[in-house]
Amino acid sequence: MEIKNSQGRKHLILSILSPILILAVWEVASRLGVVDQRFLPPPSKIAVALITVLAEGALFTHLRATLFRVLAGFFCGAVPAIIIGIIMGLSGGIRAFMRPLIVISYPIPKIALFPVVMLFFGLGDVSNVLIVSIGVFFPVLYNTMGGVTSIPRIYWDVASNFNAQALKLFLTVALPGAMPSIFTGLKLGVGMALITTVVTEYMGAREGLGFMIWFSWQVFSVGEMFVGIGVISFIGFVLTTLVERLERLVIPWKA
Amino acid sequence: MANAENGERDKIIVRGLTKSFKSGKQETVALAGIDLTVPTGEFLCIVGPSGCGKTTLLRILAGLESASKGEMRIIPNSEGLPINSMVFQENSIFPWFTVWDNVAYGLRMRGVSQEKRKKAVTYFLDKVGILDFKDFYPYQLSGGMKQRVSIARAFANEPEILLMDEPFAALDEQNRLILQEELLSIWEQNRKTVVFITHSIDEAVFLGDRVFVMTARPGKVKAMADVPLPRPRFVEELKGNAQYRELTKQIWHLVKEEVQRGQDGNKK
Known about the structure:
The structure holds two protein chains of two kinds.
Chain A: H1 2-31, H2 43-56, H3 58-90, H4 92-105, H5 114-121, H6 125-149, H7 153-161, H8 166-203, H9 209-218, H10 222-250
Chain B: E1 10-23, E2 26-39, E3 43-47, H1 54-61, E4 69-74, E5 84-87, H2 99-103, H3 105-109, H4 114-127, H5 143-156, E6 161-165, H6 173-190, E7 193-197, H7 201-207, E8 210-214, E9 221-226, H8 235-239, H9 242-267
Parallel strand pairs in B: 3-7, 3-8, 5-6, 6-7
Antiparallel strand pairs in B: 1-2, 1-4, 8-9
């Protein structure tokens, strides 16, 4: 036990060390002029930029707008994806019926649909959230469906032997059996939600972190640009951690 | 005792049961006209060479597969009880449920009240000696404990008949012997009708009232052997029993003939 603990501590230190090391190299390289400071300002200057944007209050406006789009898009994409994924996983007929539609639409870069969506819904949050949810929909759908179809046959036999039907079958076999895969899909979905949100904000938004990055680039405010990038990666970190926490809570049977 | 077609004591009646599988244009006959009558409260063991259709027969009895021809009836004793519960080979307990929820599964599916459920689950978990592990998940259990959960789950459902598909095949020798005795001790208290499939002749003779020997594929009735050994039975006592040794020897001869016949059949 003690060995495990000391090894755990060692691993923790190592995993904190790598980002610190990168930041240090970056700082030194930038200050010594190894890289152009105008394009890659040292982390200390980005920190100053962060404090400035925080003090102005602009960051919160952007953060709020982006968080709303990410979360709304995530839920609007993930919930139908889980439901449809389970139904497709359960029924070979429905799977055969839906498959061509999914296969054809999956490879389209979701962002390519943005102009189409804007034709219908105009410039605004509806269009942004819709694109984000389409982006989240596919990885969650595929993983959910795969999760259901890969439930070992023996569990279906047991359920059938104990006369589990309809909703009970769904709740006691399909849903828990697919749960680990659903979470894999959700974790991929978080990444998808961030990417699509930022890109839609580049093109069709007046606020949001994506807008902030794009605008900073246009006015050559490189420090602010990096602040935007840093905050997005922080959101990604927080959301992924939350999903992982939720996973441990919902799937206590995983070793 | 099996001659009265509709005798009150008959529990399972199988007549001319045939099962064939089609793959492409080829038709494989798995079971070729099985006749079988199992009286209420009997522990029937089925042995036969591997691939003879034992499991198919059991799955048909369980309603998991349908027969191609013939008749199969299970005569219920009381209204409202499930017809059968099965103990599967291995890893059949739901990994996402605790020991407790696994054992309660059948009762929950039938909508049995929580109070009754609690009583039955506690009773059978205690019987198989894993009451202390009721909140554990399957990944925390050994193979032997998992099969205890599976046995408790089947018994707790209070079915008309119990079907067991080589439930101890994946266990090591020590666990197998212990679980065999445990199974008998539970069974002797409630005397459900049991159909138990095994490839182990020792196991069949130790557990069964009768041993049904099947032919190589297509599976038919080869022989039916009575096991007149007194109960309760204990492994260490039976090993030295002359009658037990003679019976296992006879049955082994029957099975061996079929294994060899099956191999010859495959060569052609």
